[in-house]
Amino acid sequence: MPSIASPAQAAPASRWAPPYLLYLGNAPDHLAAKTARGLAHWRPQWCVGQFRGSDCRTTLDLPDLDFGQAVEAGANTMIVGVANAGGVMDAEAVEHVVQALDAGMNIASGLHERLASHPRIVAAAERNGRFLFDARQPPPLAVGNGRRRAGRRLLAVGTDCSVGKMYTTLAIERELRARGVRADFRATGQTGIFIAGAGVPIDAVVADFISGAAEWISPAREDGGWDLVEGQGSLFHPSYAGVSLGLLHGAQADALVLCHEPGRAHMRGLPHYPVPDLVTCLEANLQAARLTSPEVIAVGVAANTSRAESADAAARICAEIEDALGLPCQDPVRMGVARIADRLQSCFAN
């Protein structure tokens, strides 16, 4: 049988390590290729190229390579970097995975459907001595216990899904490390797991174990550094509030950053639910977090201003949010997170 691993084992030195070929298949838009896009943005040094199907409608602006060319360029692993309804592979994707295995690459997937559920994929891995990794296969977990543990933690929370929680925590990690502060991104989604090399796929964890999963990815640390926990969902999203609450309790965050996309008309996928106002949303997250971290505070707002027509318009949006909440507000992609990091460090100087 081929080796099939859990996310906890997925370190860059493992057998499904970079360099990567990013598989886009027939992704219809940018969002459908969000896993590949996240890797290309945060770990470009690992990505040698992309593979696109004939009906693909997006690009990462990487070289288009077939599987043989990718191996010649040094690719060790093909990342199935697409997301779709149900998280499944169609017949063409299965065929492409088999071809990549036959070319000599390992395969890693962020889909809900397991690679090992396809006999042809398993057979191809076996005959080529290659390895399969499913990022959405959680490790063994215990239920959360709520006991205080050493170390400092920041959790990104959101007004909705897909508003930039992963980008925000990664940007804060980069900013703090540039200042000489120990900081580690703790991944809770498939894209983050590929970027970090480890983590736990929260959306694949049984509900009773969500807070325990957050405790598992952010254990006690004694070095004075920060664990930066990737948030998921929103307390105000009827579909995903449960995972958001579990993370709030398990992370035991000292600090929260609120992530928001200005101009979004309704909760993602639910046109009958409006996006909550920022004050209400922030207070609800702080109140929930106080169960396991009574002294938690908010240190900033990360605004996804990709809808803004210009940098000046984005700056005005952030200024309005700052006036409303009294917290620094920045777009991590357009502006960085220096002022949010300033606030974090000033609030926890001792």
Structural notes for this entry:
The chain folds into two domains: 4-134, 3-Layer(aba) Sandwich (Rossmann fold), CATH 3.40.50.720; 152-347, Rossmann fold (3-Layer(aba) Sandwich). Helix 1 packs parallel to helix 6, helix 3 (91-103) packs parallel to helix 4 and helix 7 (210-217) crosses helix 8. It is of the alpha/beta class and 350 residues long. Helix content is 33%, strand content 18%. The chain has helices spanning 34-42, 67-72, 91-103, 119-128, 165-178, 190-196, 210-217, 241-251, 278-289, 311-325, 338-347, and strands at 4-5, 20-25, 47-52, 77-80, 106-109, 132-134, 152-158, 183-186, 226-229, 255-260, 266-267, 270-274, 297-303, 329-330. The chain is globular and about 55 Å long. The chain starts with a strand and ends with a helix. The strands form three sheets. Strands 1-6-5-4-2-3 form a six-stranded parallel β-sheet, with helices on both faces. It has a six-stranded parallel β-sheet with strand order 8-9-7-10-13-14, with helices on both faces. It is built from eleven helices and 14 strands.
Question: Brief description of this entry?
Answer:
By secondary structure, the protein is of the alpha/beta class. Helices cover 33% and strands 18% of the residues.
Outline the fold blueprint.
Elements: E1 4-5, E2 20-25, H1 34-42, E3 47-52, H2 67-72, E4 77-80, H3 91-103, E5 106-109, H4 119-128, E6 132-134, E7 152-158, H5 165-178, E8 183-186, H6 190-196, H7 210-217, E9 226-229, H8 241-251, E10 255-260, E11 266-267, E12 270-274, H9 278-289, E13 297-303, H10 311-325, E14 329-330, H11 338-347
Parallel strand pairs: 1-6, 2-3, 2-4, 4-5, 5-6, 7-9, 7-10, 8-9, 10-13, 13-14
Antiparallel strand pairs: 11-12
Domain D-glutamate N-acetyltransferase-like C-terminal: 143-340
Domain D-glutamate N-acetyltransferase-like N-terminal: 62-138
Protein name: N-acetyltransferase DgcN
